[in-house]
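Form P-L/3: holo structure prediction, ligand calcium ion.
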Amino acid sequence: MSHLLIVEDDDLLRDGLCAQLTHAGHSVSSASDGAQAQTMLESTRFDGVVLDLGLPVVDGVSVLRWIRQRLTALPVLVLTARDGVEDRVQGLNAGADDYLTKPFNMAELLARLQAMLRRSRLPAFGGSMEVEGASAQRLRVDPTLPLAWLDDEALDLTQREWALLSLLVNNQGQVVGREDVLAVWQTQPTDGTASGSNALEVYVHRLRRKLQDSGLTIRNVRGLGYMLEVELA
Ligand code: CA
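OUTPUT (holo model):
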């Protein structure tokens, strides 16, 4: 479940979007103008935004620029008017992750939104991710290549093990859902092993062994997924 912000001044469309996205299992908040959206974004953490560009008080492009200055990684799907080619270009230039032209099909919006949220859970590009274990060993994961190191020793990882480890390190202290791991695996070349929920447990087991002396452990959070934790000394 993601927490989404819908910013749309058309009451009918906003209510429709809220109802559909709630029905799709998301937690939804809404704003009817740009200033209200900014206030909400300042006080609440959202996983994604659906942003109409034609908004009163503060227009959508300004809100988008404002978001990009403060919340660089927040995924934003922009809604533009039918003939607003210029809007669209402006929106993408201002940092929209995707856009839809009105009138749009609700199923398409849901599909695009899911894809956008999934992409945003992938590790960010550039710079390695690090976590320090209880034994003060440092685990580093390359965000783009299937490489990881414990202190300076390279870990022998398959593509899928690396993807799983990246997600866990990138979401330290948070539960990574099984479906999130499976979704990421789908975007990757197969390494010749089975995928699916059973395979996930096999991979977690293998990763635990490879992290054995690191002071880090992967906890199974029953019914939810997995979480990377620093072992208690
Ligand atoms: Ca509008």
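COMMENT: The longest strand covers residues 216-221.
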